[in-house]
Structures are given as structure tokens and as C-alpha cells.
Design goal:
The protein is α/β, with parallel strands linked by helices. It has six helices and 14 strands. A hairpin with a 2-residue loop joins β2 and β3 (18-22). Bound molecules: nickel (II) ion and manganese (II) ion.
Length: 226
């Protein structure tokens, strides 16, 4: 899988030529000014919850690419009301087989109000199973004991976990999550974008290593094969 970081919690994952984009928030991100929105490929846009820092560019990318937007029922309804009709509504506990793999919606302990104040359902994470491996995209969440269920039911190859504290998990919580998920390879997200979530990146990588886990941090715009 080729993974490209677009800043904050936004990643593009290429699986067998299909492009899955997670939580698009690029144009308002001061750290992502060098990213050209029009170059971002998407066949699917997966949205974990309704907050602005996860959805800001979803409509424009969906309109340009024709990508199918996958999220919870309330967010999909909100997206439909913005004139985007290629959507797939889901909710926590449910799964669906798409052409790139199977998406399972899992618990995230967080809120989900839409940018206009309307109701955005419940925040979710995603477990994605593909021919090329399986991964967990946590969205915004606290550490939760329910992450053990992911470790029990799936063989996860890597996880996208928030590590910026204040709104989500702190590094130490994300390290505990690796034990629950039973996967030691973590791609960090939701850090440095704004003042409340600035982290010491070198120290964070060291803390993971000391705990026998691996924290991978991307430069914004960087692509890695994982
Ligand atoms: Ni949030
Ligand atoms: Mn957020």
C-alpha cells in the first residue's frame, strides 16, 4: 500500500490502484499550504466524524473526483444536502465490502458536531481489510478498552492513531492502544496542526521505541510504501 500524508489526520491510501482518502482537511491547514488540492486522487472519501478539521475539503474533492463518500448516516445525509450524491451511509458495528476491501466501522470515543452546528451522529474509526493487508484508522478518539475487540477479531498490520493529546490520545495512551490492538506499527496523526496539539516528535518516536513499538511520522506531502 502507498500512503500519502496531507497533514493533520488526512491520509491517502492506494490499494491496488484504488485511492482511499481519509478525513480531508487541507486548505485551512497552515502546515499544508504546499499541497495542491487538485492533485489529490480519490475513489473513496472516508470521514470519521463531523468536525471541521476532518471534513473541510470533503465536498470540493468529492465534486472534482466523483469519489464515493463513506461515513455515518448523519454525516452522509449532511453531505447529500450539499449536493453530493455518491455516498454510502454506515454506522458503528456495521461493515460493507467495497471494491478495495471491507470497511468495518468501530467505536471512537469523541464528539461529532458538523461545522454548521448540526448533528453529526457518533464519531467512528474504521478497520479496513484488503488483499494487501489490514489496518485500523482510529479517527479522533480517547484510549478505549473496546480497542481490545479489534485485536481479538482482526490481524492488524498497522494503525493510524491520534497522538496529539488535548482532543484525543496522548502518546502514552497510543502506546497502550498498540497493546489492545495487538499491532506495534503506528502512523501518528492529529498532532502539531494547532497550538493545543503540538508535540515533541523525536521524544514521541523514542517513547514508542522504548515500549517496543514503532511510531512512523510522515512529512506533509510525503508518500511511503507500507
Ligand atoms: Ni474531532
Ligand atoms: Mn480533530
Amino acid at each position: 500500500m502507498n500512503i500519502t500524508y496531507y497533514g493533520h489526520s488526512c491520509f491517502g491510501v492506494e490499494i491496488d490502484g484504488k485511492h482511499i482518502l481519509f478525513d480531508p482537511f487541507i486548505t485551512p491547514n497552515e502546515l499544508a499550504k504546499h499541497i495542491d488540492l487538485n492533485q489529490i486522487k480519490a475513489d473513496y472519501i472516508l470521514i470519521s466524524h463531523g468536525h471541521y478539521d476532518h471534513i473541510a475539503d470533503a465536498i470540493s474533492i468529492a465534486n472534482r473526483t466523483g469519489a464515493k463518500v463513506v461515513s455515518n448516516f448523519e454525516i452522509v445525509t449532511w453531505i447529500n444536502n450539499q449536493g453530493v450524491n455518491n455516498t454510502h451511509p454506515m454506522n458503528i458495528g456495521g461493515s460493507w465490502k467495497f471494491d478495495f476491501g471491507t470497511v468495518k466501522c468501530v467505536l471512537a470515543v469523541h464528539s461529532s458536531t458538523m461545522p454548521d452546528g448540526s448533528q453529526g451522529g457518533n464519531a467512528m474509526g474504521f478497520v479496513i481489510e484488503t488483499q494487501k493487508g489490514s489496518f485500523y484508522y482510529a479517527g479522533d478518539t480517547a484510549l478505549t478498552y473496546d480497542m481490545k475487540l479489534i485485536g481479538d477479531f482482526y490481524k492488524i498490520d498497522f494503525s493510524f492513531l491520534p497522538i496529539g493529546d488535548n482532543f484525543t490520545m496522548v502518546v502514552e495512551n497510543a502506546i497502550s492502544a498498540t497493546n489492545f490492538i495487538n499491532c506495534k506499527k503506528v502512523i501518528g496523526m492529529h498532532y502539531d496542526t494547532f497550538g493545543f496539539i503540538k508535540i515533541d516528535k523525536i521524544e514521541s518516536v523514542r517513547k514508542f521505541a522504548d515500549a517496543g513499538s514503532e511510531l512512523i511520522l510522515f512529512e506533509i506531502g510525503e508518500t511511503k510504501s507500507i
